[in-house]
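Lab notebook page, bench 4
Experiment: in silico fold of construct C2
Operator: M.H.
Input chain length: 149 residues
Purpose: comparison with the prior construct
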Amino acid sequence: MRTVKEIMKILPYSCKENDSLEFIASYMSISATKFLPVIDENQKILGTITFDTLCDAIKKNNLSEHTLTAAEVMNPRPVFIHSHDDEASALKKMRIHHLGQLPVVDDENHLRGIVSFITIARRLIKLKNSIQLSNHNPAKINRLKLSFN
């Protein structure tokens, strides 16, 4: 089992608590992400904003996104994982909290990366496939190759 640090995306996209929703919407669009950690000047996690949260906030405020900031719409109780935790712990947190991504933090809660369900799932599928291939009898594989020639 790998640690989250080994599989996380380093230098993740993030925003500051005083960033406007207009800026955040543009940033999400340009970066093709639907999830942003909100950080302070020391890179500590303050909250998270999802694309759905952003859309809801814009709808509720009559499309005046430039008047709202990240601090006003973020989830102030973010779920995150430490870089030394394993990928099974990340999957468990994602399942419990119905999340597709988690901010990865160090021991002082500084943002270090993001880990996604997709990243872990792809890795586990590759691992499963390699185990299945190694369990096959090489003679059977060669016969199968010959039958398709």
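Observations: The domain at 4-147 is CATH 3.10.580.10 (CBS-domain). Residues 117-135 form the longest helix (19 residues).
Next step: discuss at group meeting.
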